[in-house]
C-alpha cells in the first residue's frame, strides 16, 4: 500500500513539474515583452519619489503582513508538546515560514522545515507532521473568506459571472464547510481543544490574508496609483487564483503578470506597477527571509563552541569595519561632488553614485559634512568609542535629513546599509584612547587637498569646456562670474578648512591620551629579579629613563619607552617564564586599549615562540657577543696583538682595580671628568645604553684604570646579568692617551676578575646590524633598515664594533626586533631610531 502511494506521488510530481515549468516560461515571456517597453527614466522617477518615511512604512507593513505566518507554531506548541520556550518556537517558526513562503511547493516545504527544527524536541514526530499538515490545510481558510466576500460583493454589485467569480465562489465555500465540520465534531466528540485550535488557525489565516491585502493596497497608496480598493480587489483575487492554479513557487511571474495586466486596464503605467511588484516582493518575501537567515545563522552561532564564536564575531566585526570605512568615504565624496550645481546643470547624466543630495537643507552643510566624513573614514582605524559615537551622530544627522527631504530609494538603501555596518562593527570600537600620528595627519591632509583640487578643477574646467562648445563666447564671462559668486566655492573651502582643523585637533588630542605610565619602582623591580632572575638588559631599568609595566600577578616585568603610536619594549620580559605568554598578552591588550602597539627591541629566541603566537614578525637587529671565560686566554699566535697591546699598557705603569660602592665625591668627580672628555661636548643617550648617573653607577662595582701618576684614565661600570653566571659592563670610557690597547687592557683584566669570582660567561653586548641585510638574498626590509641604522647613526658608532668583539667572542647569539604583523617596518624602525637617538634629558624621570 505504501509502495503504491509513493509511486502515485512520484507520478504526480513528474506531471506537476513540467506543467509548472511551461506555465512559468509563458508567464516570464509575457513579462519580458512588457518589460522591454519599460521606460527606465520613468521608473527611476517613480522610485525617486519614495522618501525615507515611505520606505520605513513599507518595511513595517511588510513585517506586519508577515507576522501572522509565524504564529501557527505557537498555536500547536502545547498540543504537539514541543519542548522549547515560546521564544525559541517563534524563532524557528519565523525561519521555516519565511523560507517556505518564498519557495512555495504547496506547504510541503513548511512541513519539511518544521519537522527538521522540532523533531528533536517532540516525543511523537508523526503527531508533529499531522498537526503541521493540518495548519497547511487550514491556511487556505483566510483566502477562502476573501473569495467569499468577493463573490458576495460581485452578486450585490451585479458584476459579470466570469471564471474568476465561479472559482472564487468555489474557494469561498471552503471556510464555511470547515467551520461547520469543526463545530459538528465538537458537539459530537466534545473535544473542545481541537476545536479551539482549529478556530485559532483559521483566525490567524484570515489575519494573514487581511494584512497581505493591507500591504499591497498600502503600497498602491504610497506610490500614488489612482486605483480604488473596489477596483483593486478583483484584480488581487484574480492574481492569487492564477498563481494557485499555476502552482509556481510564490506565484512568481503568474501573480505579477496578472497584477500588471489588471492594473493597466485602469491606465496605471507599467513602470508604477513594476515598482509596486518589486516593493511587494521585497517587503513580503525578501526582508522576512533575510531576517530568518540572520536568526538561523545566530542559532548556528550559539551552537558552536566559544572559540569558534569568537573567531566568527571578530571576523564579522572586522569585515563590517573595513566596508564601513569605504562606505563613509564614498558618502563623503558623494555629498561633496553630488552637490556641484554646475555639474548638475550642464552634466545631468553623471554617475548615480555622485547623486546623493543630503536633505537639501543646505548645499553648504552637505559639503561640510562630506569633508568631515572623509576625515572620519580615515580615523576609523583608531577604533575608539568616541569616534564611533561621533560617526553615529553624523549619520543620524544625515538620516534625519531624509525625513525633511526626498531621498530616493537608492539613497535609502545606501544609508540603510551603512547603519547595518555601523551596528555590526560596533565591537571594533572598544578603545578608550588613540594616537593620531603625523603619518596619518599627512595622509589625511593630502586626501583633503586632493579632493578640494579635483572639485574646483572639475567644476570650473568642465563648465568652461561645455560653454565653449555650446554657448556663445559672450556668455563665458557671466558664467565664470557666477561660478565664483555662488556660495558653492566658499562652501567647499569652508568644508576643507574645517576638515584640516579637525586633523590639527586630532593631533592635539594625542596629549589627552591617558595611558597609565608607571615610573620606576625599584623595590618592585628588585623583588621580581630576586624571585625569578633577570636578563642581559634588565639592569638598564635602573637608569630611570624608561617606564615599567608589571602584570596583574606581579611576576612579569617590562621596561619601555613610547615613540608615536609604538611602545618600544627593551629586551625580553623578566620574571616568571611560565607566565611570559599571558604577561605579554596582557600588556598587548592593555596598550591596545589606548591605541598603542608593542614593539620588542633586542629579543632572543627565548620569547620568539610566544611573540609569534601573538601575531608578531621578526627582523634581525644584530648579534650579541659572548665570551666563554673558561676558554679565554691570551696564549697563542691568534692573541699575539692583544698580548702586545696589554703589555705596552702594563709597562707604562698603568694599574687596573675594581672599586665597590659607595663612591666618595673625589672618585665620582674623576669618573665624571673622564666621561665628559670622552663625550667631547655631545649629549648622552639612554634607553638601551647607560649614562653617567651617580645613583645608577653606585648599583654595582666600577673597574678603573690609573696611570703611573695615579690619574684616572678610564673606567667601566660592571653590569650584572642577574643569573649568577654572567657578567657584563655598561659604560666604558677613557681619556685620550698616546698608547694603544687601553680597551684590551681593561677587558682582559675584567675577564680575569670575572673568572676569579666564579662567573662562566661575559656578555660583550650587541653588535648592531651584524650580518643584517648585507647579502643580495636578505629581506628587502632588512636592507632598508640597515641603511636607516647606518645613516641614523649617533654617538656610539657601529663601525668596527663587531670587529673588536670578534677578538674575544667565542659565541654569537642573534637578536631581533619583533613588530606586529601588518605594521610598516620602515616606520617602526624610524620610531625605534627616534628613541635610540633621544637625549637622556628628554626621557622620563
TrEMBL record:
GO terms for biological process: lipid metabolic process; phospholipid homeostasis; response to antibiotic. Residues 528-819 form the Phosphatidylglycerol lysyltransferase C-terminal domain. It comes from the Bacteria. Its main location: membrane. Keywords: Antibiotic resistance, Cell membrane, Lipid metabolism, Membrane, Transferase, Transmembrane, Transmembrane helix. InterPro entries: Acyl_CoA_acyltransferase, L-PG_synthase/AglD, LPG_synthase_C, PG_lysyltransferase. GO terms for molecular function: phosphatidylglycerol lysyltransferase activity. Coiled coil: none annotated. Catalyzes the transfer of a lysyl group from L-lysyl-tRNA(Lys) to membrane-bound phosphatidylglycerol (PG), which produces lysylphosphatidylglycerol (LPG), a major component of the bacterial membrane with a positive net charge. LPG synthesis contributes to bacterial virulence as it is involved in the resistance mechanism against cationic antimicrobial peptides (CAMP) produces by the host's immune system (defensins, cathelicidins) and by the competing microorganisms. Belongs to the LPG synthase family. This is Phosphatidylglycerol lysyltransferase. It comes from Clostridium paraputrificum.
